[in-house]
Amino acid sequence: MSPLVEAADLAPADLARVRGIYEASFPDELLAPFEDLLADRMLVHLEDDGPAGFALVRDLGPTAWTFLRYYAVGRRGRGTGSTMWAGLTGLLAAEGRTRLVWDVEDPGEPGLSPVAVEEHRRRIVFYERLGGRLLPVRDYEPPHDDGHAPRLLLMDAALGPSGADHEDPALRDVVEAVFRWRYGRTPDDAVVHRTLAASGLL
Length: 202
What we know:
Elements: E1 4-6, H1 12-25, H2 34-37, E2 41-47, E3 50-59, E4 65-73, H3 80-94, E5 99-105, H4 114-129, E6 133-134, E7 152-158, H5 171-181, H6 190-198
Parallel strand pairs: 4-5
Antiparallel strand pairs: 1-2, 2-3, 3-4, 5-7, 6-7
């Protein structure tokens, strides 16, 4: 069995373990009901003792880009995060996807505890070590289903072999695609307009 499998192919007990990883990995304000996640594509990393992590992805409409909605591992310090990343990016590239895009919590958001600031910074460094980059996007606060709009940063990574000839897309196109196909907001929405203006993209 491949170490990265579709959640739909898991036994109920293994899916319950994935749910436990999800609920332990994110603050309450970023948690959607677990059942709702299954509307997107959930890929689960398996190790000898069962599910060890998962990635939740959604293709961004007609583009060749994929949005990474959640990425979590059950136990740190075993190399699971890096191994799962290699499996995920390799799979998406083989399927013809050219770019992975995701958002992360902004460690500069006012009012955060020192623990939260360090956690947010550590997550960004993890992705940068794996080839991700922070995009120069400002005032990026996409609204969530519960009305909560955390201050986030946007990251991306090219997919394919190292040095693959993928031109960087226009930043405005990436921002608009994320808002439209992940958050359901069109370019004329005030939230989108604010981000584009603050980022110098109008």
